[in-house]
Amino acid sequence: MNITDIQGKITLHNGIEMPYLGLGVYKSKDGNEVKNAISFALNAGYRLIDTASFYGNEKGVGEAIRESKLSRDEIFVTTKVWNDDQGYENTLKAFEISIKKLGLDYLDLYLIHWPVPDVLEETWQALEKLYIEGKVKAIGVCNCLKHQLETIKKSGTILPMVLQNEFHPKLVQQELIDYCKKQNIYYQAWSPLMRGQILNNKTLTEIARKYNKSVAQIIIRWDLQKGILTIPKSVHKNRIEENAAVFNFQLSSDEIKKIDALHTNERTGAHPDHFMEHFSK
User: Fold this and answer.
1) 131, 220, 226: which is closest to 180 by C-alpha?
2) Which Pfam families does the record cross-reference, listed alphabetically (predicted)?
3) pLDDT at 281
Protein backbone atom coordinates (compact mmCIF):
# COMPACT_ATOMS: atom_id res chain seq x y z
CA MET A 1 0.00 0.00 0.00
CA ASN A 2 1.52 3.29 -1.10
CA ILE A 3 0.94 5.62 1.87
CA THR A 4 1.34 9.17 0.63
CA ASP A 5 -1.16 11.53 2.22
CA ILE A 6 -4.58 11.70 3.87
CA GLN A 7 -6.38 11.47 0.54
CA GLY A 8 -4.49 8.39 -0.60
CA LYS A 9 -6.53 5.44 -1.82
CA ILE A 10 -6.31 1.73 -2.44
CA THR A 11 -8.08 -0.10 -5.30
CA LEU A 12 -10.54 -2.83 -4.34
CA HIS A 13 -10.67 -6.04 -6.39
CA ASN A 14 -13.59 -4.67 -8.42
CA GLY A 15 -11.61 -1.55 -9.43
CA ILE A 16 -13.31 0.88 -7.02
CA GLU A 17 -10.95 3.27 -5.22
CA MET A 18 -11.31 3.57 -1.44
CA PRO A 19 -9.49 5.93 0.96
CA TYR A 20 -7.24 4.08 3.39
CA LEU A 21 -7.96 6.51 6.24
CA GLY A 22 -11.44 7.58 7.31
CA LEU A 23 -13.60 8.82 10.16
CA GLY A 24 -15.64 6.34 12.19
CA VAL A 25 -18.79 7.78 13.78
CA TYR A 26 -19.77 5.02 16.24
CA LYS A 27 -21.41 6.61 19.33
CA SER A 28 -21.37 10.06 17.70
CA LYS A 29 -24.77 11.57 18.49
CA ASP A 30 -27.06 12.29 15.55
CA GLY A 31 -27.46 15.97 14.76
CA ASN A 32 -24.82 18.58 15.56
CA GLU A 33 -22.27 16.27 17.18
CA VAL A 34 -21.88 13.94 14.19
CA LYS A 35 -22.29 16.79 11.69
CA ASN A 36 -19.53 18.82 13.35
CA ALA A 37 -17.22 15.80 13.51
CA ILE A 38 -17.69 15.16 9.79
CA SER A 39 -17.18 18.84 9.00
CA PHE A 40 -13.90 18.84 10.99
CA ALA A 41 -12.82 15.66 9.19
CA LEU A 42 -13.63 16.83 5.67
CA ASN A 43 -11.86 20.14 6.33
CA ALA A 44 -8.82 18.18 7.53
CA GLY A 45 -8.79 16.19 4.30
CA TYR A 46 -10.62 12.99 5.25
CA ARG A 47 -12.67 11.53 2.40
CA LEU A 48 -14.22 8.41 3.99
CA ILE A 49 -17.07 8.38 6.52
CA ASP A 50 -18.06 5.09 8.18
CA THR A 51 -21.49 4.78 9.81
CA ALA A 52 -24.09 2.04 10.39
CA SER A 53 -27.85 1.81 10.89
CA PHE A 54 -27.11 0.63 14.45
CA TYR A 55 -25.31 3.91 15.23
CA GLY A 56 -28.54 5.88 14.80
CA ASN A 57 -26.80 8.80 13.07
CA GLU A 58 -27.23 8.15 9.33
CA LYS A 59 -29.49 11.21 8.99
CA GLY A 60 -26.83 13.53 10.42
CA VAL A 61 -24.13 11.89 8.30
CA GLY A 62 -26.11 12.56 5.14
CA GLU A 63 -26.82 16.15 6.14
CA ALA A 64 -23.12 16.80 6.83
CA ILE A 65 -22.17 15.40 3.43
CA ARG A 66 -24.75 17.54 1.64
CA GLU A 67 -23.74 20.67 3.57
CA SER A 68 -20.06 20.21 2.69
CA LYS A 69 -18.72 21.95 -0.38
CA LEU A 70 -17.46 18.66 -1.79
CA SER A 71 -19.18 16.79 -4.58
CA ARG A 72 -20.76 13.44 -3.74
CA ASP A 73 -18.17 11.46 -5.70
CA GLU A 74 -15.38 12.92 -3.56
CA ILE A 75 -16.72 11.32 -0.35
CA PHE A 76 -16.68 7.57 0.26
CA VAL A 77 -19.66 6.57 2.44
CA THR A 78 -20.01 3.25 4.26
CA THR A 79 -22.99 1.94 6.21
CA LYS A 80 -24.00 -1.47 7.52
CA VAL A 81 -27.01 -3.78 7.89
CA TRP A 82 -27.74 -4.60 11.54
CA ASN A 83 -28.32 -8.10 12.95
CA ASP A 84 -32.09 -7.77 13.41
CA ASP A 85 -32.51 -6.65 9.79
CA GLN A 86 -30.73 -9.56 8.12
CA GLY A 87 -32.10 -12.18 5.73
CA TYR A 88 -32.69 -11.55 2.02
CA GLU A 89 -35.85 -9.41 1.97
CA ASN A 90 -35.12 -7.72 5.30
CA THR A 91 -31.67 -6.64 4.13
CA LEU A 92 -33.10 -5.09 0.96
CA LYS A 93 -35.63 -3.18 3.09
CA ALA A 94 -32.93 -2.12 5.58
CA PHE A 95 -30.82 -0.79 2.73
CA GLU A 96 -33.70 1.35 1.45
CA ILE A 97 -34.23 2.78 4.95
CA SER A 98 -30.50 3.57 5.32
CA ILE A 99 -30.19 5.21 1.90
CA LYS A 100 -33.30 7.29 2.61
CA LYS A 101 -31.96 8.45 5.99
CA LEU A 102 -28.61 9.28 4.40
CA GLY A 103 -30.38 11.07 1.54
CA LEU A 104 -27.95 9.61 -1.00
CA ASP A 105 -28.48 8.11 -4.45
CA TYR A 106 -25.97 5.31 -3.88
CA LEU A 107 -23.61 3.90 -1.27
CA ASP A 108 -19.89 3.42 -1.74
CA LEU A 109 -19.69 0.42 0.59
CA TYR A 110 -22.39 -1.69 2.26
CA LEU A 111 -21.33 -4.13 4.96
CA ILE A 112 -22.94 -6.96 6.94
CA HIS A 113 -22.43 -5.70 10.49
CA TRP A 114 -22.18 -9.15 12.14
CA PRO A 115 -22.38 -12.58 10.47
CA VAL A 116 -25.76 -13.79 11.81
CA PRO A 117 -25.32 -17.57 11.36
CA ASP A 118 -28.67 -18.79 9.99
CA VAL A 119 -29.09 -15.97 7.47
CA LEU A 120 -25.51 -15.06 6.51
CA GLU A 121 -25.75 -16.57 3.04
CA GLU A 122 -29.06 -14.96 2.11
CA THR A 123 -27.99 -11.62 3.58
CA TRP A 124 -24.93 -11.79 1.34
CA GLN A 125 -27.17 -12.61 -1.65
CA ALA A 126 -29.09 -9.39 -0.94
CA LEU A 127 -25.82 -7.42 -0.93
CA GLU A 128 -24.85 -9.03 -4.24
CA LYS A 129 -28.22 -7.93 -5.70
CA LEU A 130 -27.70 -4.33 -4.52
CA TYR A 131 -24.20 -4.37 -5.98
CA ILE A 132 -25.28 -5.80 -9.35
CA GLU A 133 -28.05 -3.19 -9.55
CA GLY A 134 -25.48 -0.42 -8.97
CA LYS A 135 -27.03 0.80 -5.73
CA VAL A 136 -23.74 0.14 -3.95
CA LYS A 137 -20.26 0.39 -5.43
CA ALA A 138 -18.70 -2.24 -3.16
CA ILE A 139 -19.83 -4.83 -0.62
CA GLY A 140 -18.20 -6.51 2.33
CA VAL A 141 -18.53 -7.88 5.83
CA CYS A 142 -17.58 -6.99 9.39
CA ASN A 143 -16.60 -9.11 12.36
CA CYS A 144 -15.85 -12.30 10.47
CA LEU A 145 -13.28 -15.05 10.84
CA LYS A 146 -11.94 -17.27 8.06
CA HIS A 147 -14.74 -19.86 8.28
CA GLN A 148 -17.43 -17.19 7.83
CA LEU A 149 -15.60 -15.77 4.81
CA GLU A 150 -15.37 -19.31 3.41
CA THR A 151 -19.15 -19.72 3.82
CA ILE A 152 -19.72 -16.55 1.78
CA LYS A 153 -17.15 -17.60 -0.79
CA LYS A 154 -18.83 -20.99 -1.32
CA SER A 155 -22.42 -19.75 -1.42
CA GLY A 156 -21.99 -16.42 -3.18
CA THR A 157 -20.83 -15.34 -6.61
CA ILE A 158 -18.98 -12.18 -5.54
CA LEU A 159 -16.11 -12.16 -3.06
CA PRO A 160 -16.29 -9.50 -0.32
CA MET A 161 -14.15 -6.48 -1.18
CA VAL A 162 -13.61 -5.46 2.46
CA LEU A 163 -13.48 -7.17 5.86
CA GLN A 164 -13.88 -4.70 8.73
CA ASN A 165 -12.77 -6.21 12.04
CA GLU A 166 -11.69 -5.10 15.47
CA PHE A 167 -7.97 -4.49 15.06
CA HIS A 168 -5.38 -2.88 17.32
CA PRO A 169 -1.98 -3.82 18.81
CA LYS A 170 -3.62 -6.27 21.26
CA LEU A 171 -5.68 -7.96 18.50
CA VAL A 172 -3.63 -8.44 15.35
CA GLN A 173 -4.82 -11.83 13.98
CA GLN A 174 -2.02 -11.93 11.41
CA GLU A 175 -3.15 -15.26 9.91
CA LEU A 176 -6.55 -13.77 9.09
CA ILE A 177 -4.89 -10.69 7.56
CA ASP A 178 -2.67 -12.96 5.44
CA TYR A 179 -5.72 -14.97 4.34
CA CYS A 180 -7.51 -11.77 3.28
CA LYS A 181 -4.44 -10.61 1.32
CA LYS A 182 -4.40 -13.92 -0.59
CA GLN A 183 -8.12 -13.53 -1.34
CA ASN A 184 -7.65 -9.87 -2.36
CA ILE A 185 -9.98 -8.72 0.43
CA TYR A 186 -8.90 -5.45 2.06
CA TYR A 187 -8.75 -5.52 5.86
CA GLN A 188 -10.13 -2.49 7.70
CA ALA A 189 -9.70 -1.72 11.41
CA TRP A 190 -12.47 -0.70 13.75
CA SER A 191 -11.44 0.42 17.25
CA PRO A 192 -7.84 0.89 16.07
CA LEU A 193 -7.02 2.75 19.31
CA MET A 194 -8.63 0.02 21.46
CA ARG A 195 -11.11 2.57 22.82
CA GLY A 196 -8.20 4.37 24.46
CA GLN A 197 -7.19 1.35 26.57
CA ILE A 198 -3.73 1.06 24.99
CA LEU A 199 -2.65 4.70 24.91
CA ASN A 200 -0.41 4.35 28.00
CA ASN A 201 1.39 1.25 26.74
CA LYS A 202 5.15 1.47 27.44
CA THR A 203 6.34 0.18 24.03
CA LEU A 204 4.03 2.54 22.16
CA THR A 205 4.92 5.48 24.41
CA GLU A 206 8.64 4.98 23.73
CA ILE A 207 8.12 4.84 19.96
CA ALA A 208 5.86 7.92 20.13
CA ARG A 209 8.53 9.86 22.04
CA LYS A 210 11.14 9.03 19.40
CA TYR A 211 9.03 10.54 16.60
CA ASN A 212 7.52 13.34 18.71
CA LYS A 213 4.08 11.93 17.94
CA SER A 214 1.13 10.77 20.04
CA VAL A 215 0.57 7.08 20.71
CA ALA A 216 -2.62 7.33 18.62
CA GLN A 217 -0.58 8.59 15.66
CA ILE A 218 1.91 5.72 16.05
CA ILE A 219 -0.94 3.17 16.01
CA ILE A 220 -2.61 4.71 12.96
CA ARG A 221 0.72 4.79 11.14
CA TRP A 222 1.29 1.14 12.10
CA ASP A 223 -2.12 0.25 10.66
CA LEU A 224 -1.33 1.89 7.35
CA GLN A 225 2.18 0.45 7.05
CA LYS A 226 0.68 -3.01 7.61
CA GLY A 227 -1.71 -2.41 4.71
CA ILE A 228 -4.71 -2.05 7.04
CA LEU A 229 -7.39 0.53 6.21
CA THR A 230 -8.39 2.39 9.36
CA ILE A 231 -11.24 4.52 10.72
CA PRO A 232 -10.35 6.09 14.10
CA LYS A 233 -13.36 7.65 15.79
CA SER A 234 -13.46 11.07 17.42
CA VAL A 235 -15.82 14.02 17.67
CA HIS A 236 -13.07 16.45 18.74
CA LYS A 237 -11.50 18.75 16.13
CA ASN A 238 -7.97 18.51 17.56
CA ARG A 239 -8.08 14.69 17.75
CA ILE A 240 -9.53 14.35 14.25
CA GLU A 241 -6.74 16.55 12.89
CA GLU A 242 -4.08 14.78 14.97
CA ASN A 243 -5.23 11.35 13.74
CA ALA A 244 -4.64 12.52 10.17
CA ALA A 245 -1.15 13.91 10.80
CA VAL A 246 0.64 10.61 10.21
CA PHE A 247 2.24 11.14 6.81
CA ASN A 248 5.52 12.86 7.70
CA PHE A 249 7.27 9.91 9.36
CA GLN A 250 7.77 6.19 8.85
CA LEU A 251 8.07 3.36 11.38
CA SER A 252 10.98 0.97 10.95
CA SER A 253 10.36 -2.73 10.28
CA ASP A 254 11.67 -3.46 13.81
CA GLU A 255 9.13 -1.05 15.30
CA ILE A 256 6.33 -2.69 13.29
CA LYS A 257 7.42 -6.07 14.72
CA LYS A 258 7.56 -4.65 18.27
CA ILE A 259 3.98 -3.41 17.94
CA ASP A 260 2.87 -6.71 16.36
CA ALA A 261 4.35 -8.49 19.40
CA LEU A 262 1.86 -6.71 21.70
CA HIS A 263 -0.86 -9.07 20.39
CA THR A 264 -2.66 -10.91 23.22
CA ASN A 265 -5.89 -11.79 21.35
CA GLU A 266 -7.69 -9.27 23.58
CA ARG A 267 -10.99 -7.80 22.39
CA THR A 268 -13.02 -4.77 23.42
CA GLY A 269 -16.04 -6.04 21.47
CA ALA A 270 -17.76 -9.37 20.91
CA HIS A 271 -16.13 -12.45 19.39
CA PRO A 272 -17.39 -13.23 15.86
CA ASP A 273 -18.45 -16.73 16.97
CA HIS A 274 -20.27 -15.61 20.13
CA PHE A 275 -21.73 -12.19 19.36
CA MET A 276 -25.38 -13.34 19.46
CA GLU A 277 -25.05 -14.00 23.22
CA HIS A 278 -23.25 -10.66 23.61
CA PHE A 279 -26.07 -8.64 22.03
CA SER A 280 -28.88 -10.56 23.74
CA LYS A 281 -27.64 -9.50 27.20
Assistant:
1) 226
2) Aldo_ket_red
3) 63
Write down the pLDDT at residue 278.
Answer: 86
* Domains of the chain as residue ranges with CATH: 9-280 (3.20.20.100)
- In this prediction the pTM is 0.97
Residue positions annotated with a catalytic role = 55
